[in-house]
Amino acid sequence: MNQDGRIIATGRLGLSFAATAALVVSALQDAPLPLGTSCRAAQEYVPLQYYIPVPWQQDVIAARKKGYEFLRSVGVRKTCFDIRDIYYFDIMDPLIREKGGCQGKALAFTPPDWLDAKHLPSIFRYFPEVEILMIWGLRVDETVADAIVNHLPGLTEVHLPGNGVSDYTLKALAKLKHLQILVTGAGYITDKGFAYLPEYPSLKYFAISPAYDRMLKGLQHLPKCRNLEALWLGYLGKEDPAPPGALPPDPPVSGKAPVQRFVSPEVAAELARIPRLKYLCLPFSNIDDDFVRELSKSRTIVYLDLINCVHLTDKSAEYLSEMKQLEVLDLDFCEQLTDESVKHLAGLPRLRGLSLYVPNITDASVPVFCQMKNLEYLGLGKGVSAAGGDKIIEALAPYKLILLSGKCSYGDGGYWYRPYHYHKPK
């Protein structure tokens, strides 16, 4: 194995990847590098505060020296490396964060958006200890996808833009044995690309947005993802964009309402079958009550985000009341929900986070909220008055309530946080 490969192997035998990355980067502080590629040059890329002076083998220092020289040669002058906290499920903010908290630290690389993507394979070759890769504005074609796999074997987290990603990208990244988090734009991904997701041995969190119509058939493969715990499908069922040069659609017929097509309930049934799925986010999705009926058959989902799913009605809340394991539910901007929905949701015994920023939830629901003693977070819209918010705080703060987002007389800016040393409001 080459020198960089030995670096990775050393990390596997003795230290975590995060610790190995920190030690490798730390060694550069006191490394005897010549003027122009000294530790001061390295500090342009890795912040000084993360250095821990540790002696390291000379071949590692030489490899990093070449890497910094290459970065300078292509014009990269400011920090593009960082030591980042790892949050596997940091998707609950501002509701309730996963109680597991930070899972450690890792070396992250974020190339600047103006960089020519052709330089990425060379950069990857010089820094194989990177564990978090975040590419925002560059095109990720097949060459870049192959370079990621060949030169960054220790990746645990990857963020890719929609620019250039395709079914081939998902196929290639399946070779990363330690990849746990994959976030990508839609690009050219189709239903066929989803067939490769069960091949990821360690994948826990997958996010793609928009999740176009062309991808829906591919969701049938997700129940085979044996480790998948968190899934984000933004704009599920959004109509595929027209190809370049296509004729514009016919104008709507006057006096005739367009036919509304929703994501099939069969798709929801597939999502409900994912064996370890705990966190599901479907914001801005084209779904209806029938979809929620099938989704509510899941007995593993504890966090559900249905923000801006505007076609849901009180019937969906009735179906959701069957998910007794639910802990956090976000129904913001589902504007057809009414006070009747609150009556259904009040029967969820484990619910600790609830957001209902909708106009038709009113003071009529205040007595119901006051009985939900397990709530830690409650978000309400303008339909609940400040007096109603005060009553909720007075009823729930002595129990578990930490934050109320909505009208109230306590706190500033529409937010009430329970003080560290809590005293019941007078």
- Average of pLDDT: 82
Strand content: 5-15%
**Cα-to-Cα separation, first versus last residue:** 70 Å
SSE order: HHHHEEHEHEHEEEHEHEHEHEHEHEE
- Main β-sheet description: 14 strands, mixed
The low-confidence parts are: 1-44, 47-57
**Which outline best applies?**
globular
Short description:
This protein has helices at 3-14, 17-27, 39-42, 58-73, 120-126, 142-151, 167-173, 265-272, 289-295, 314-320, 339-345, 366-369, 386-396; strands spanning 81-85, 105-109, 132-134, 157-160, 181-185, 205-209, 230-233, 279-281, 303-305, 328-330, 353-356, 377-380, 403-405, 415-417. By secondary structure, the protein is an alpha/beta fold. The longest helix is centred in the first third of the chain and has 16 residues, at 58-73.
Verbal overview:
Helices cover 26% and strands 13% of the residues. It has 426 residues and is α/β, with parallel strands linked by helices. The chain has a 14-stranded mixed β-sheet with strand order 1-2-3-4-5-6-7-8-9-10-11-12-13-14, with helices on one face. It contains 13 helices and 14 strands. The chain has helices at 3-14, 17-27, 39-42, 58-73, 120-126, 142-151, 167-173, 265-272, 289-295, 314-320, 339-345, 366-369, 386-396, and strands spanning 81-85, 105-109, 132-134, 157-160, 181-185, 205-209, 230-233, 279-281, 303-305, 328-330, 353-356, 377-380, 403-405, 415-417. The chain starts with a helix and ends in a 9-residue tail after the last strand. α12 (366-369) links the parallel β11 and β12 (377-380).
